[in-house]
Design a protein that fits this description.
- The protein is mainly alpha-helical.
- It folds into two domains: 3-74, Arc Repressor Mutant, subunit A; 83-161, no CATH class.
- 48% of the residues lie in helices and 11% in strands.
- The protein contains six helices and three strands; from the N terminus they run ααβααββαα.
- A three-stranded antiparallel β-sheet has the order 1-3-2.
- A hairpin with a 2-residue loop joins strand 2 and strand 3.
- Helix 2 packs across helix 3 (29-36) and helix 2 (13-24) crosses helix 4 (40-52).
- The model is unreliable at 1-6 (pLDDT under 50).
Length: 177
C-alpha cells in the first residue's frame, strides 16, 4: 500500500469510529456494527483493513452459530503522521515559524518511536521525560522575551550539569492553547 493510502485509510470517519470503539474494549465486527448503527459487513470490511495495517489485532476467535466470530481490539492509541509524509517541510524557518515547530515535532516522533522500538528489542524501558505547561502572554513581544529567557536558562542548566555521556535532545515549543 502506498504511504498516502496508509495515511488516509485509517482516517476515514467510519474507521476512526471503529478504532474509537475498539479502544474502549475488544469486540467483534457485529458488536461494533451494533454500537455504531452500521451493517456488520461494512464494519467487518473496515476492521479487516485496519487489521492489515496493524491498527487492530485479533484477541480471540469463538464459535457462534456455526461460524467463527473474530474479536479484535485497537492496537494503537493514536495515529500520528509525520508532516513530511504529505509534503516537504520548508527549509530554514525562524524559531517562531509554525513549520519549525512541526519539523521538530516530527523529528521527535520519529526518533522516540525508533528508540522505543530499539529499547523494546533489548528488553529495556526507554527513559524519556516531558514537561508541559500553559502560559499566557499579553503581546507578541512577551512571547519573544519568554522564548529568549527560556533558551538562556536551558543553556545555563545544560552548562551547569556538564556534557554527560548520555545525550538527550530537548524540544520545547509552544502553540496557541
Amino acid at each position: 500500500m502506498a504511504t498516502l493510502d496508509l495515511v488516509s485509510a485509517p482516517l476515514s470517519p467510519l474507521r476512526r469510529a471503529v478504532l474509537e470503539r475498539l479502544r474502549e474494549a475488544p469486540a467483534s465486527a457485529t458488536e461494533v456494527a451494533g454500537a455504531l448503527g452500521e451493517s456488520r459487513q461494512r464494519v467487518n470490511y473496515h476492521v479487516r483493513a485496519l487489521e492489515r495495517e496493524g491498527l487492530v489485532e485479533l484477541v480471540e476467535e469463538r464459535a457462534r452459530r456455526g461460524c467463527v466470530e473474530r474479536v479484535v481490539r485497537a492496537s494503537c492509541h493514536a495515529v500520528i503522521v509525520e508532516p513530511t509524509v504529505v509534503g516537504a517541510m520548508p527549509e530554514e524557518q525562524d524559531r517562531f515559524a509554525a513549520d519549525t515547530l512541526l519539523a521538530g515535532g516530527a523529528r521527535l516522533v520519529r526518533d522516540v518511536a525508533a528508540a522505543r522500538s530499539a529499547a523494546a528489542e533489548r528488553g529495556q524501558r526507554l527513559l524519556t521525560f516531558a514537561v508541559e505547561a500553559e502560559v499566557g502572554f499579553n503581546r507578541p513581544a512577551d512571547l519573544e522575551r519568554f522564548a529568549d529567557a527560556l533558551a538562556a536558562r536551558i543553556a545555563e542548566l545544560a552548562a551547569e550539569l556538564g556534557p554527560g555521556e548520555r545525550k538527550y535532545r530537548v524540544l520545547i515549543g509552544g502553540h496557541p492553547a
